[in-house]
Amino acid sequence: MLRHYQRLQAMAAGGAWARLPSYRHARHHGAAMGTPGLGGVTGGRTALPPPGDTRLFLRAIEGDGNGFEYAMFLNAAERRLLCLVQPGPYLEGHPGLTHGGAIATIIDSALGTCALAVAGPVVTANLGIDYLA
Asked: Is 108 a catalytic residue?
């Protein structure tokens, strides 16, 4: 894992790739953007965060190594994103196995992050995964 991370860091240092930030806490969408407790929804409309203020929720589990530990690297010119993930114990389904929902979450987040970077604001309309094992 460390070797892969160091390789990706070296690619980012070369300039074509960029390491994307991951945020420890999500942006509060209640009181700051509308009615407290309604997630920013006011009068049937959802208040959107300012441009460039997107937060990914994957790092919301407290404690290093307990949840999603990941690093995303983007090459916008090639429209490619590489994501290195180390799932923590809070993401287990059966002991020693990562829960399928956690796998789907990181896939959705990585693809959404790449799409956001190369095409602008996007949402996932449908995500279907058939796990073989």
From this structure: yes
Structure tokens at 125: 């309309």
Q: Which of 53, 64, 108, 130 is catalytic?
A: 108
Report DSSP letters for 30-68, one per residue.
Answer: STTTSSTTTTTEETTEEPPPPTT----GGG-SSSTTSSE
Predicted TM-score of the model (pTM): 0.69
pLDDT at 20: 87
Locate 85 and state its tokens: 């993930």
pLDDT confidence tier of residue 80, bands split at 50, 70 and 90: very high
State the pairing for strand pair 80-87/68-75. antiparallel
For 23, phi then psi, to 5°, come to -110, 140
CA distance 36 to 32: 8
1 pLDDT more than 80: yes
Core vs surface per residue 2-34: b (16+ CB within 10 A) or e? eeeeeebeebbeeeebebbebeeeeeebeeebb
Least confident piece of the model among 19-23, 60-64, 128-132:
60-64
